[in-house]
Structures are given as structure tokens and as C-alpha cells.
Amino acid sequence: MRVIAGKFKSRRFYPPANKWPTRPTTDFAKEGLYNTLMHQIDFSEVKMLDLFGGTGSHSYECISRGCEDVTYVDQHGPCLKFVKEISKELDIENYIRIVRSDVFKYIQHCGIQYDYIFAGPPYPLPNLSSLPIEIFKHNLLKKDGLLVVEHDNKHDFSKHPFCYKEKSYGQAIFSFFEENEA
Fold first, then answer.
1. Calpha distance 137→125 (Å, rounded)
2. Phi, psi for residue 6 in degrees, rounded to 5
3. Where are the beta strands (DSSP E) in the chain?
4. What is the C-alpha separation between 24 and 130, in angstroms, rounded?
5. What are the residues facing 49 on neighbouring strands?
6. Range list of β-strands (E), 12-130
7. Domain 27-177 part of CATH 1.10.10.60
8. Cys-Cys link to 56, which of 82, 83, 128, 174 (CB 3.0-4.6 A)?
9. Sign of CA dihedral 25, 146, 63, 34
């Protein structure tokens, strides 16, 4: 895995392979996503939430592009340990808040709003389809904020009232959400 652009461009990192419970976004899919996002987001002014953060790939990408306020959420101990190590290596500890929590519990209790939320849940997660509903229900997204959910073709968010676009990169599909004024 690598950082696509910014001050850490081309920086590679290697999570442990043994019993690693994540499905990291491929470099191909991540590059496509961030090529789209760079026209929508000024990362230097964004408060970002990385749900199901796994390896921290999206957190590093946003920080590399200028974001100084990232909250990373995951519940798997080795993932948190890995992200802490990489954060120290990159000297970005002041820019990332690492939270060990079940994502759905975090959503219910965090009480913070974000400009950009990325969610990369496990594709077979039984309640994946409720993720955008919970995020909007608990008001985690700021006005004019953007939510991106990564999923596979077994999930379809196109009928969700706030989903306005989908982009596919191989097996990965990114659904884009923003709360529109009714």
C-alpha cells in the first residue's frame, strides 16, 4: 500500500499479513477516489473521520494532502497498534486521533461533526446498508459535508435519498452522499 499524493507521496507501508482482518482499499481504487475528491475537497480545511480505519491508509492520504484533523476509528487491536506506529514514523501524531471503538457505537455517541467521512467497512458486514442512515441520523456530517462509503456490488445505495453518485474501480464501489436541502 502507498500514499498517492501530497507530502508523503509514494510512501509505502506494509501491515502485518498474519491474521490481518482488513480488506485495504487497493492503490488503484484509492487513486481513482482521491482524483475525484481533489476537485471537491480542500484537505487543508477538512475535519475528517475514517470509519473502519483498518491500516489507516485513508487517514494518511488525507494528512499527506494537508488535513490536520483526522479521527481514525477501528476496534481491532493490531490495526490500532499499526496505525500508532505509522503515525509516529510519519510524525503525524498531532494530526490524528486514534479511537478504539465499534464504529456503530462511535457514531451513536461521538457528538462531533465532520466535513469528510470515509467508511471502508468489511463488505460482508451484516448491517453495512444501515451505515449511511446512522451517520445522517446522528448528524455526523457538517452542512455541505461529504460521506463516501466503500462497498462491493452486493450493496446498492443508489436509492438512498442522499446518495448522488457511485464510482467503481474493480471490485470496489464508492458511493457518495451529501445531505441535500429538501
1. 19
2. 95, -160
3. 47-51, 69-74, 96-100, 114-119, 141-151, 163-169, 172-177
4. 21
5. 71, 117
6. 47-51, 69-74, 96-100, 114-119
7. no
8. 83
9. positive
Q: Residue 57 corresponds to which cell in the numbers above?
A: 491508509
Strand, helix or coil for residue 135:
helix
**Amino acid symbol at 66:** G
Domain ranges of the chain: 27-177
Residue 52, C-alpha cell as written in the block:
473502519
What is the distance, to the nearest Å, from the Cα of residue 119 to the centroid of all Cα atoms in its chain? 4
Each residue's pLDDT tens digit in the chain (182 positions)? 888 999 999 898 887 766 666 677 888 999 999 999 999 999 999 999 999 999 999 999 999 999 999 999 999 999 999 999 999 999 999 999 999 999 999 999 999 999 999 999 988 888 899 999 999 999 999 999 999 999 999 999 999 999 999 999 988 999 999 987 64
Q: Rounded CA gap, 31 and 60, in Å?
A: 13
